[in-house]
Batch of 2 targets.
Target 1
Amino acid sequence: MQRVLWITGAGSGMGRAVARVAAAAGWTVALSGRRADALRDTASEVTAAGGTALELPLDVRDGDAVRAARARIVEEFGRIDALVLAAGRNTPQRAWGDQRIETFHDVVAVNLGAVVTVVDAALPDLRTSSGVVVVVSSYAGWSFHPSAGVAYSASKTALGSVARTLNAQEAAHGVRATHLCPGDVATDFLSQRPTVPDAAARELMLTPDDIARTVQFVLDSPAHVRIDELVVSPVSQR
Ligand SMILES: NC(=O)c1ccc[n+]([C@@H]2O[C@H](COP(=O)([O-])OP(=O)(O)OC[C@H]3O[C@@H](n4cnc5c(N)ncnc54)[C@H](OP(=O)(O)O)[C@@H]3O)[C@@H](O)[C@H]2O)c1
């Protein structure tokens, strides 16, 4: 049976690794993010390995675009079995004393609002397929992390509630959500830190493939198994 996974943030980092690993495990992948060229590269990796990928460039803050993408996936494949919601952002201006309020609202819109928008759009399909939602949150969404920033901490912490309300209210339809909380992962995301980690620091971090392997475990778990929360961190995490 064909199983269809829609990934946001699929053009880089964890999203791209999830696409590669899921496709190798037999999943058909739909790829979203703003950069069409980055999605094309992810799709090329998937198809070169014999998988099937559909590129759907969009800005996750655009609700109409999200709903149109959902319709396109259903038109193309007839179903959606899982979401991996990896699109996210931060900002180097993280403190009450230096943040811009417009940036605060945008971080919340991408990290929290858009996650809800995508789940809302795909929920009818997930109900039909007893689907899985993997919400890529953060270590800072699991345990308070002073350097993560006002907007990032607040938005990622709220994702725990998003997953829990889904699990509480949608269990009757077999829908299962995982609040996935990675520690430091060596991706482009680190360039948004006030002090960008050097190569030696990145050597100690998780790789996107470490997270993809974890996500694959969730995706391939039997339909009666729900994995509510996972915290995955490098041994060096503080
Ligand atoms: N790296 C870490 O240490 C770490 C740790 C814990 C959690 N996380 C979380 O993990 C997730 C994936 O991050 P990553 O580390 O893999 O970094 P990444 O490579 O920078 O991935 C972030 C992705 O989000 C997409 N994105 C950002 N804004 C978007 C928008 N408005 N619309 C659509 N897509 C958007 C980006 O694609 P476009 O620019 O093409 O849109 C990009 O592919 C993020 O949610 C991040 O908060 C990261």
Target 2
Amino acid sequence: MSRKNDKTLRFYHEVLGLERLHYGMWQAEDDVTIAKFKEAQIRYEDFLIANIPPDVKKILDVGCGTGIMARKLLNMGYDVEGLSPDVNQKKYFADKLNAKFHSTKFENFTETNQFNCLIMSESSQYIKLEKLFTNAHKALKNGGYLIICDYFVKKNATGIQSKSGHKYDAFVKQISKSRFEIIKEKDITESVVKTLDIGKDFVSRIQKTVEIYTENIVKKHPHFTNLILWIGKKKIKKYRKQLQLLDSQEFKKNKTYRLFLLHSTTES
Ligand SMILES: C[S@@+](CC[C@H](N)C(=O)[O-])C[C@H]1O[C@@H](n2cnc3c(N)ncnc32)[C@H](O)[C@@H]1O
């Protein structure tokens, strides 16, 4: 997993205390609050579920995170298995669910002809393109489906936002070379970006707290403060760059967040 993304995820999980590891889908009128964020995440999962074709019975949740989506699907009566290379997620999954878990990267997954549907919710970005569609086709039964919901990097993207995610053009080209056809594609960028606003808001609150508690030290020891700032200048520069990952305008400029529903075809 890319370290930059890993940090963003850890921030949402460990600092904001969220169980889910995806952006969610906000409504235009939503206030940027944790309560609304939680609703947005549930809305996103319902949106994914609504896109599962009616004939599907057995699902593999690829990059299953903390197992919440898998649990929802099991409760709906689907036969579900999870997959993730992350050891902590293996534990979350085992604690929550009585379902099979594959402790591996999808690139190394070798099962064939098993599932009616694979779901990659914000996990396709971590899977090498060359293996993503070939392994997905092998894992699926005849006529199976692949649901991908993730962000992609736009053409001419720049800055730190251009560093994570598959390039959209390359991704679509890879689909056209694969044994899948697109039966639905939907751009949901506008509805995900408030997640970045909430992250940024929390970071600035933390910054403010640090400022308040260090105010006296800065006043009493200005030379010492300047020295510390000088020593830490590389770290501060890096931190400012990382903050751009939480900039929703930058995200919209450089990224597109999309749902793909793909149908596997038999011709090679
Ligand atoms: C952003 S989280 C999304 C989790 C979950 N699907 C969700 O929507 O909340 C990305 C997931 O992809 C998994 N992942 C990372 N690299 C992977 C790989 N090579 N193959 C499969 N899953 C991978 C991570 O462990 C994590 O579970």
